[in-house]
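Run folding on both entries below.
>entry_1
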Amino acid sequence: MKIRSTLVWFATAAMLAGSGVLGPVAGAAPSTSIEPISRIIDGAYAGYALSYWTTDEHGRPARARGQVYIPSGTPPAGGWPIVSWAKGTVGVGDSCAMSTALENRTAEDPMAVELSKPLITNLLRSGTAVVSTDYIGLGTSDIHHYLNSVSAANAVTDAVDAAADMLPALSRTWVAAGHSQGGAAALTTGARAGMYGAPSDFRGVVSFAPSSNLEVLLPLLSPTTPRIAQLDNVTATLIYILHGLEDSRPDIHVDGYLSDIGRAYVTQAEGSCIGALREEVIGVSPQQLLARPLSDSAMASALREYLSVPTTGYTRPVVIEQGLADMVVPPAATTGLAAALLASGVREVTYRPVPDATHYDVVAATVDDAQARILHMLH
């Protein structure tokens, strides 16, 4: 079990031997480390495991890990352009992270990684490098603040700079893209690109089924909220959110809002990756997790600050792809998000509802369209 509200400070000076355009830069900042991996995604010529510093939602330094995949061939002048891919939900425990799967050669890649492979493979084959964060707290000593939009966006941004610092074959021209949890992270990255991170050539956002508007839904829940079957899909998500919020906002005293059942699930959240947790909570409504309404002003405010996807601040194109058969991220929520972006004056917003696509196949169903849009942004 990780220690809550404790920031573990460390840096590594370990650098790999090697030279050439794909090798790490000699003398690069010791706070970033990178090493080759043998288990790489189809379409990649080389892959690296990355460990780097970023900042959480409170501006505190935090460690994150991720992966870097390099295309085949000779890099163009200025280096390979980058897509910073934000993964979908894997869980909140270290065992769920892609970095852990790479270290454990017998482990399967997380489902969220499998869902993104059609697009990532195509991008690599088109001459685009891919950098993918595991977020703060997955494979590191911190608690993962699940669905906190700011900390996730910081990790997405800083992964690009960390990778480009280490690998001279990479440029700093990049696009943020992601699915589900990562779709929200990619959008928040776009809203914050002008005010966070080192100067770089940021080109836009492609977001698939982004988690959004949960800060509107969750305050409607209480122990006495009538049971609605469709809300049972929220149970696992709520457990992970409250697990992260408990560490991010100790002043809210999340424990006081939980029933005995809710307390047990939140306490044990790190032990179940998303597929297993969804199986465990079949038949458990989100209302059963609660002893008090989440509409309490302090909790509602905390949820809004913790979860909200920005609807202003975008200066580059935004593309949102949403399956209309999605039972995890309701199409109505994404439609509301797109409408809010347009209403707030974001000029370059493309919203593509995709008939028959579910939460789990929307990336594969839209790969040709999404790839074309990403390449247009980058070039």
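>entry_2
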Amino acid sequence: MTSSPTPTADTAPRQLSRNAYGRLMLVDRQGQTHENVTPVRAHPLSAPDEGIAFVGTDGHEVAWIDHIDQLPDDQRSLLREEFAGRELTPTVHQLLAVSTFSTPSEWTVETDRGQTRFILKSEEDIRRLGEGRLLIASSHGLHFMVPDRFAMDRASRRLLERFL
């Protein structure tokens, strides 16, 4: 069994942009242009900004970055925009209400995609990811991300603490 080489800074993209059709286009360190690349996070939940591969249409990795901060601001924004359009994990900014402090309970939250309600079936549906990050699964299987529970407003933190 052979293993792929460990990605290095030499495999980081030289240029990342959108083509005329709105798809990502990457120019690698050797100057080769790759159309329709797809960025893939190595650790989408535990370390979303670390280890990002750029995969070509043939399914092979064409470039790699160890951390999103390796990219210039404009390319970093482009990459975040691409992830936001593909990922279906709303980010919870604020807990507005909880129907009861026992489960199942209905939660009303403000997310990056607007206000919504969902049912939390049990406390086990709240997963701690480390560094204050939480992943909450609704009764319908939709996941909600809390990037930093300690940075939330006081009322939201108090509601969360009742379930953790």
